[in-house]
């Protein structure tokens, strides 16, 4: 699949919405020097293409679970994607990433008790065929948490193709 073709107006629009998704289309249009219809159409296209979405970001205070844990998983290389999909299917897991380094999968979950965390890591994840080792790290104090961490921006690669990170 090729990288999406975004022009300068698309990028400016995404930047405005990334800072405040509640800003009106009329204000965006005035600020960017285009019509409100252009803004509305661009936003609709970006949403339909799956390039942007709007959601409310909740704080940890609303979660039933007040602690965050990172679960590093070493899985058989040939099974990594299937194991990651099975981990992602667990309702207790909030995020799953394929990684390079000590672990080839990283899962993030919120939990209320060590028993709950142990059940997820040892009884659920470690029991998945292809998993060799599971190691948990518990966040004891959050100094900074940027909910916009998932924002994807263009990376200049030096090559002809655009890459996104």
Description:
With 165 residues, the protein is of the alpha+beta class. The protein folds into two domains: 1-55, Winged helix-like DNA-binding domain superfamily/Winged helix DNA-binding domain (Arc Repressor Mutant, subunit A, Orthogonal Bundle); 60-138, 2-Layer Sandwich (Alpha-Beta Plaits), CATH 3.30.70. Helices cover 33% and strands 21% of the residues. It has helices at 8-19, 25-32, 36-48, 80-88, 114-125; strands spanning 67-75, 93-98, 105-111, 131-138, 154-155, 163-164. The strands form two sheets. A four-stranded antiparallel sheet has the order 2-3-1-4, covered by helices on one side. Helix 2 crosses helix 3 (36-48).
Proportion in helices: 25-40%
Q: What is the string of SSEs from the N terminus onward? A: HHHEHEEHEEE
Main sheet?
4 strands, antiparallel
The whole-number mean of residue pLDDT values reads 84
Q: Within the CATH hierarchy, at the fold level, what is the topology of the largest domain?
A: Alpha-Beta Plaits
Per the principal axes of the C-alpha atoms, what is the gross shape?
Answer: elongated
Number of domain modules? 2
- Per CATH, the class of the largest domain reads Alpha Beta
Based on CA atoms alone, the radius of gyration comes out at 20 Å
Structural class: alpha+beta
* Distance from first to last alpha carbon: 16 Å
Strand order of the largest sheet: 2-3-1-4
Q: Uncertain spans, ≥5 residues at pLDDT below 50? A: 152-165
DSSP helical segment count? 5
Q: What's the number of extended β-strand segments?
A: 6
CATH architecture of the largest domain: 2-Layer Sandwich
């Amino acid at each position: 699949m090729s990288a999406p073709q975004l022009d300068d107006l698309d990028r400016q629009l995404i930047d405005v919405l990334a800072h405040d998704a509640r800003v009106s289309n009329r204000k965006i249009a005035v600020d960017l020097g285009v019509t409100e219809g252009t803004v509305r159409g661009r936003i609709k296209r970006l949403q339909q293409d799956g390039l942007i979405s709007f959601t409310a970001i909740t704080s940890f205070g609303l979660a039933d679970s007040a602690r965050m844990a990172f679960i590093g998983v070493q899985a058989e290389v040939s099974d990594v994607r299937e194991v990651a999909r099975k981990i992602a299917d667990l309702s207790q897991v909030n995020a799953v990433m394929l990684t390079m380094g000590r672990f080839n999968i990283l899962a993030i979950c919120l939990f209320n008790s060590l028993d709950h965390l142990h059940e997820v890591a040892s009884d659920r994840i470690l029991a998945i065929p292809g998993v060799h080792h599971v190691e948990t790290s518990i966040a004891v104090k959050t100094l900074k948490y940027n909910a916009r961490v998932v924002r994807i921006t263009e990376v200049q690669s030096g090559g002809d193709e655009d890459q996104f990170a």
